[in-house]
């Protein structure tokens, strides 16, 4: 039997169990690599605070990171801003480039009725201009 890697020997077994217990199930190698990727997660929807009617559905978000930079502003920018804009930033954010509507079925107790609502899910992601809000 091969010996475990040295890094695993230095972790107490209880700590390793906690790390495994609190690790998100949906994490994949893609979500941890550079770039902007689709990331699946389950969304739960309730009709009211008591959860009278409820449903779940797998949807996708965009996660990851894109390049950004900050540098001293050019002299012409300084003059135009009365020397107040001394740093120029160029940044891009991971965002949804294509979305789709999906229907979530809300099941109610004792088969009273079934509601369907539409929510958005990401279909494609890209690095794009950062915005405060897209929707």
Automatic annotation (TrEMBL):
InterPro entries named in the record:
Cystine-knot_cytokine, Glyco_hormone, Glyco_Hormone_Alpha
* Gene Ontology molecular functions: hormone activity; hormone receptor binding
- UniProtKB keywords: Disulfide bond, Glycoprotein, Hormone, Secreted, Signal
Q: Which residues form the signal peptide?
A: 1-28
The main location class comes to secreted
Q: Name one GO cellular component term.
A: extracellular space
Location relative to the cell:
Secreted
Q: Name one GO biological process term.
A: cell surface receptor signaling pathway
User: What is this protein for, i.e. what is its function?
Assistant: Functions as a heterodimeric glycoprotein hormone with GPHB5 able to bind and activate the thyroid-stimulating hormone receptor (TSHR), leading to increased cAMP production. Plays a central role in controlling thyroid cell metabolism.
- Family per record: Belongs to the glycoprotein hormones subunit alpha family.
Per its UniProt record, what PANTHER family does this chain match?
A: GLYCOPROTEIN HORMONE ALPHA-2
Protein's recorded name:
Glycoprotein hormones alpha chain
Organism of provenance = Anabas testudineus
